[in-house]
Amino acid sequence: IAASGQSDSVRMNRSDDPKKCRDRLPPLFHQIYAGRSIPEAYRGHLLSCLRLNYPDFAYVLWTDDDAAAFLADKFPVHSAMFSGYAKALQRSDALRYFILSYFGGIYADMDVQCLRPFNRLAAAESCFLDQERWEQSQILHGTEFAAMNSVMGCGKRHPFFDVVIARLKRTSKGL
After folding, report:
1. From the CA atom positions of the chain, what is the Rg in Å?
2. How many CB atoms lie within 10 A of CB 1?
3. In the CATH hierarchy, which top-level class contains the domain 7-11+21-165?
4. If 0-12 CB within 10 Å is exposed, 13-18 middle and 19+ buried, where does residue 67 land?
5. Domain extents in the chain
């Protein structure tokens, strides 16, 4: 997986507790968009991913309506927090964490172009995040390294996303 100018993914150790996460990523490819009609500007990127990964990976497009129903059903305690986010980008960022926590698989932003199939990465990792380019990490964050949420993957119920979701709850309360 690569988007223009982005480097290798960040890898996390798999959980040693099989009750907390499944070792491998399920063959699901998730994306989020407001509605079912994908703008022309994103279609080439989407097609690059589908050409390399279908039928090995099922494609799931999550819309605003899907998000509300999914959170109300599977994460009702977080539904009000999610609805309370003022910006669509905040809801999109949060939604991807809930999706990966519950279903597992691979998430990619609409502007990500796939250069390689997901299979090798899915077979080798139980959880990964995209990495910001070194230059961007330096300029934007003043650090050598920054993880990104534009491309991520994990097995179902990976403990990493339990931590991320707990932090969402804390930061939404201003803690």
Report:
1. 16
2. 24
3. alpha beta
4. buried
5. 7-11+21-165
